[in-house]
Amino acid sequence: MTQETKFGHQNTVIIDDLNANPFEDALTAADGLHGVMDRRVALRRPPRIRGHSWDYFYNPMWSRLGDGSPGPSGTYWRAGTGLINYYWNTFDQVLLRPALLPFYDPAELVVPEEAGGRRILDDGNGSGLSDHLPVAITLAIEKEVEDG
Q: What pTM did the predictor assign?
């Protein structure tokens, strides 16, 4: 039994360092977190796969990948030496169940680069506060209380 089943709702938010990018299997696989990049897909009924239906999470962090997004190109920088190197990774993520999408505004998802006037991301010489950037989100849940 899942915690959502136990408590009788799907008002679930995951905010965590998942050590994987939004496009990796653990986040996108139906038997993983089943995170999708498009809220229209997240609002659909999930398909039956191998006789089971896994509910979607909407992952707004897809829209934060690359330099066309507001803020930094990811939440973790690593200049690796392998044949594949993304440089920027988005390991720190927010995933929302579709029930929460009416309360989510993309402008309220931020990846701050400074705190208290100091750079957060450490460039390896001790100048920053962390090797990851934080993720912050505001959900307008008071909207439901006011409308209810």
A: 0.88
How far are the Cα atoms of 77, 91, 120 from residue 124, in angstroms, in the given order?
Answer: 10, 18, 12
Residue 85: exposure state from Cβ atoms within 10 A (0-12, 13-18, ≥19): exposed
Rounded Cα distance, 66 and 18, in Å: 18
Measured distance CA(45)–CA(48) in Å, rounded? 9
Q: Which pLDDT tens digit goes with each residue over 90-107? A: 999 999 999 999 999 999
| 116 neighbors 134 (Cβ within 8 angstroms) | no
Domain ranges for the chain? 3-147
Residues in the chain: 148
